[in-house]
Amino acid sequence: MATSIRAPLRTAAGPVTARAARRRLARLGGEPAPEFDLSRLVRPVAALSGLAVLVIGGSGWYLPVAVGVAVGVDRSLRRIEPPSVRRRRLRAAADLPLAADLLAAALRAGAPVDQAVVAVADAVAGPLGARLSRVARALRLGAEPVEAWRQLDAVPGGDRLAAAAARSAASGAALAGAAIRLADDLRAGRSAAAEAAARRAGVLIVLPLGLCFLPAFILAGLVPVIVAVLGDVL
Fold it and tell me: pLDDT class for 27, splitting at 50, 70, 90?
């Protein structure tokens, strides 16, 4: 009887693979489903590049060259940041000033550090919220502050917040004030970077105009003068 009951349930639900289980757990945890890891293709592409050099060379003497090409392609491709990783990093960096302000507000309201981090993680969400959630779990499990806040090292500017939290835990310094200063510094740096990008964009916009104007200036201004001078001389 038990077998006849379990079989239809297994057939209706279907087999649950490990990948599907990880995706369900990721959705339950508020994190995005894992994407295809492009780094898996690096080694095959490097090997195919070396093999192509060896085939084109058609001789065993090209084996060192093929090995060098394979190693170079492998190292070059591994330095390229995947688009998904770049998007998560940029979003986490954009949310960091707001997270620092919220953390300072929660701490000044009297919340403990771990509870304040949990509240900020829930409010911010996204990649930075996931990292802050791991920080809070590590703090609640008794991890050292330096180890717990290391989750933010990959976020631009997050290492400064982690260092301030470690100093606060070691020396009793006010973390709220450090978080507010960090938020102000990050916003000022972002404004300066935006102004620099706008200035570079202005220069780059002028370049095509100069490239179009220079041939016209040469043909309309210099060529007639040169022709007239050569006519008088000859």
Answer: very low
